[in-house]
Amino acid sequence: MPKNILITGGAGYIGSHTVLQLLLCGFKATIIDNLDNSSEIAVTRVKELAGQFGSNLIFYKIDLRNKPALEKIFASTNFDAVIHFAGLKAVGESVRKPLLYYNNNIIGTINLIEVMGAHGCKKLVFSSSATVYGWPKEVPCTEDFPIAATNPYGRTKLFIEEICCDVYRADSEWKIILLRYFNPIGAHPSGHIGEDPNGIPNNLMPFVQQVAVGRRPALTVFGKDYKTKDGTGVRDYIHVVDLSDGHIAALRKLFDSNIGCEVYNLGTGKGTSVLEMVAAFEKASGKKIPLVMAERRPGDTETVYASTKKAELELNWKAKYGIDEMCRDQWNWANKNPYGYGGPDSAI
């Protein structure tokens, strides 16, 4: 019997790509998503891309804070494991609206874990973030670095990691993997699913792609005087398909081993500067990206990239794609869907 996986936030950017990989690997998938910052069109396209496996996908529009609705789904279906993506993720917004972030991300997660426990589903993969490393004093970041967050969004990830560890300490039947993502970019090679943020993008590549398709006039680069090779910030960018495969590897680990509560970095282990990334995108798209150089943003770190040794060793997973493929697939998605999943009228 194929294993049945519940994916919270499965209509979002990373969620939709992971659901597709799950289906193609023979899993059954149930998405729950409140469509706050995602689109049901992504779910439809995942079904189409999955071909004969598309019939193994079910979608429910619910919010994790609606505990009775969550109970109902768990009462009607036996899940073998949960991948938990659902959450608000804009750093700037979290600073302006901290209570919204604590309410949505933490209360939603507590509801989920309580309902999972009540129904005997005690295998969880949680979507954490490299933001829990705060301002690392050195790189690459290893999983045993001290953790500290510099904004409410990051703190929700940090608190949820702690909650998961405490849940396991209280009940050793739980098996939990915390995945700390670095900077996911790119899109499915088909160009049919990709990143489609609401409003002004918070991350580099969605902004670059909106400049490339003419939706925004120029890219603002924050900070040109860092102690890096070209003065711009350095990050670890990872192809979203590699990231999705990391979740499959984590699930297999939950099913095949006697793991407790473990944390793994998912990145490439290589740092790329903002200007290097822009140059790679220009090459992939054939478009010139106009730049506006600005002051550093408060809270931005200079250089952050992952140590991926633990994931390679214990999950048998390693990122396959480099920045050329990431930019190629990002441009293919942007070129085919200049306004994301909506039309020009839905763009802000």
Description:
- With 348 residues, the protein is α/β, with parallel strands linked by helices.
- 39% of the residues lie in helices and 16% in strands.
- The chain has helices spanning 13-24, 40-49, 67-76, 91-96, 98-118, 152-170, 204-212, 240-256, 274-285, 309-315, 323-336, and strands at 4-8, 28-32, 57-60, 81-84, 123-129, 175-181, 183-185, 219-222, 234-235, 237-239, 261-266, 272-273, 291-294.
- The strands form 4 sheets. It has a 7-stranded parallel sheet, sandwiched between helices. A two-stranded parallel ribbon has the order 7-10. A two-stranded parallel sheet has the order 8-13.
- α1 packs parallel to α2 and α3 (67-76) runs parallel beside α5.
- The longest helix has 21 residues, at 98-118.
- It is globular.
- The N and C termini lie far apart (45 Å).
- The mean pLDDT is 96.
What is the CA-atom radius of gyration, in angstroms? 19 Å
The description of the largest β-sheet is: 7 strands, parallel
Strand order, main sheet: write it out: 3-2-1-4-5-6-11
The rough form would be described as globular
DSSP helical segment count: 11
What is the helix fraction of residues, given as a range? 25-40%
Head-to-tail CA distance between termini: 45 Å
Indicate the low-confidence ranges by residue numbers: none
Mean pLDDT: 96
